[in-house]
Write a structure and sequence with these properties.
By secondary structure, the chain is mostly helical. It has three domains: 72 residues, no CATH class; 83 residues, no CATH class; 117 residues. The protein is elongated and about 90 Å long. It starts with a helix and ends with a helix.
């Protein structure tokens, strides 16, 4: 016996709607809907409809022996449960794309280098170190491509927006007047300037003399610039850290930092980590070439 699923579901919704209008509700299901929906009447009714339709489907499936056709197993999911499962599925997809994007090119390049490029005159540890450092760059490139793919997927963009909204709602904020909003913007600009000065001044103070005095014409312009950047990143990060210490010692910045700590942490580590890894990679390559 085959059923038109659309007509069948529409008929069940019509039946349950008439039951609610006439006041003929199932008390046990209504109590369960009240327990899950709380004081929101719309949520209670929606949950009751889900539970009632599920019981009708199950009763009909048991009667005509088509439980396999109806694919009924367990209680129906609420909207919150369905959204939570969808978010978990999207998070697993994101994790897999990032893992594949990094580890696939990493192992492809590492295996190729280990089989065909290693030097038998050098010991095993040196060969493995060279293999790992040489494979990091394609791994980072693959990870970046994976991030681009994630940004192009509508489901992943929606997941990112939901996570940003959840982090924003998790931070308690007081209603702000216009003067408080202006003061907040002024504090943000002050923080940005201190961080920029803390990083870029020591970066250029070390990088420019290094490029003028310590570079070697035998290695070419690209390697010299890469070594200059690698030499300037460490003092730049040190100056950035000093700037953070200064900010945390300022009472006007403490509340602002606490409110935006999750976002700041993600930006700092998310953006600086690939740069640091790439700088170490360049430094190791220069060391092996020299």
């Amino acid at each position: 016996m085959k059923l038109d699923s659309h007509l069948y579901t529409s008929h069940l919704y019509t039946m349950v709607r008439k039951e609610i209008l006439q006041g003929h509700v199932q008390e046990d299901l209504w109590i369960q809907a009240l327990a899950e929906g709380g004081t929101d009447e719309k949520k209670v009714k929606a949950r009751y409809i889900e539970l009632r339709i599920w019981t009708l489907q199950k009763a009909l499936a048991n009667t005509i022996g088509c439980a396999r056709t109806l694919a009924i197993s367990g209680q129906p999911q609420s909207m919150e449960e369905a959204k939570a499962k969808l978010r978990q599925s999207r998070k697993r997809t994101r994790t897999r794309i990032r893992a594949i994007g990094f580890w696939m090119p990493f192992f492809v390049v590492a295996i190729f280098i280990f089989l065909f490029v290693t030097d038998e005159r050098k010991n095993l540890i040196t060969n493995i170190s060279f293999m790992v450092w040489a494979s990091l760059f394609p791994g980072i490139v693959g990870f970046t491509i994976g991030e681009i793919i994630l940004r192009l997927m509508p489901s992943q963009r929606q997941l990112t927006k939901e996570e940003e909204k959840a982090r924003t709602l998790a931070i308690p904020r007081q209603p702000q007047s216009r003067e408080e909003a202006k003061l907040r913007q002024l504090r943000k600009r002050t923080r940005t300037r201190i961080r920029a000065i803390g990083f870029w001044i020591p970066f250029f103070v070390v990088g420019i003399p290094f490029f003028l005095l310590a570079t070697d014409e035998r290695y070419g312009l690209v390697i010299n610039i890469s070594s200059t950047v690698a030499a300037g990143i460490l003092p730049g990060m040190l100056g950035f850290t000093i700037g953070e210490i200064i900010l945390k010692s300022m009472p006007s910045q403490r509340q602002l930092i606490e409110e935006e700590w999750h976002r700041v942490r993600r930006r700092i580590f998310g953006r600086l980590q690939p740069i640091v890894v790439f700088a170490i990679f360049i430094w190791k390559i220069i060391g092996l070439l020299s």
